[in-house]
Amino acid sequence: MITSDKPTRSSTPSQSITQKMGISREAMLGWLFVLPALALYAVFVLFPILQSVRYSFFNWNGIGE
What we know:
Layout: H1 17-21, H2 25-55
Protein backbone atom coordinates (compact mmCIF):
# COMPACT_ATOMS: atom_id res chain seq x y z
CA MET A 1 0.00 0.00 0.00
CA ILE A 2 1.22 3.51 -0.84
CA THR A 3 0.70 6.35 1.61
CA SER A 4 0.59 10.03 0.85
CA ASP A 5 2.29 12.77 2.87
CA LYS A 6 0.03 15.51 1.51
CA PRO A 7 -2.23 17.07 4.13
CA THR A 8 -5.93 16.90 3.44
CA ARG A 9 -8.01 20.04 3.20
CA SER A 10 -10.40 20.82 5.97
CA SER A 11 -14.11 20.79 5.26
CA THR A 12 -14.50 24.50 6.11
CA PRO A 13 -14.13 26.85 3.14
CA SER A 14 -11.42 29.49 3.24
CA GLN A 15 -12.43 33.08 3.94
CA SER A 16 -12.70 35.52 1.09
CA ILE A 17 -10.76 38.78 1.03
CA THR A 18 -13.83 40.80 2.01
CA GLN A 19 -14.37 38.60 5.06
CA LYS A 20 -10.72 38.90 6.08
CA MET A 21 -10.85 42.69 5.80
CA GLY A 22 -14.20 42.92 7.58
CA ILE A 23 -16.03 44.70 4.74
CA SER A 24 -19.24 43.53 3.14
CA ARG A 25 -19.40 42.70 -0.55
CA GLU A 26 -21.80 45.60 -1.14
CA ALA A 27 -19.40 48.06 0.47
CA MET A 28 -16.53 46.76 -1.66
CA LEU A 29 -18.60 47.13 -4.83
CA GLY A 30 -19.61 50.63 -3.77
CA TRP A 31 -15.99 51.67 -3.38
CA LEU A 32 -15.13 50.15 -6.77
CA PHE A 33 -17.79 52.35 -8.39
CA VAL A 34 -16.78 55.50 -6.49
CA LEU A 35 -12.98 55.27 -6.85
CA PRO A 36 -12.79 56.30 -10.54
CA ALA A 37 -14.90 59.39 -9.82
CA LEU A 38 -12.73 60.28 -6.83
CA ALA A 39 -9.59 59.86 -8.92
CA LEU A 40 -10.92 62.20 -11.63
CA TYR A 41 -12.02 64.71 -8.99
CA ALA A 42 -8.57 64.65 -7.43
CA VAL A 43 -6.80 65.13 -10.77
CA PHE A 44 -9.01 67.87 -12.19
CA VAL A 45 -10.12 69.75 -9.03
CA LEU A 46 -7.92 69.10 -6.02
CA PHE A 47 -4.56 69.06 -7.79
CA PRO A 48 -5.08 72.45 -9.54
CA ILE A 49 -6.29 74.03 -6.30
CA LEU A 50 -3.25 72.77 -4.41
CA GLN A 51 -0.93 73.90 -7.20
CA SER A 52 -2.46 77.40 -7.18
CA VAL A 53 -1.91 77.61 -3.42
CA ARG A 54 1.70 76.53 -3.97
CA TYR A 55 2.20 79.08 -6.78
CA SER A 56 0.76 81.86 -4.63
CA PHE A 57 3.85 81.72 -2.42
CA PHE A 58 6.14 82.74 -5.31
CA ASN A 59 6.57 86.17 -6.85
CA TRP A 60 6.58 85.33 -10.55
CA ASN A 61 4.87 87.23 -13.35
CA GLY A 62 4.48 84.14 -15.55
CA ILE A 63 6.77 85.16 -18.40
CA GLY A 64 10.35 85.08 -17.23
CA GLU A 65 12.68 85.99 -14.44
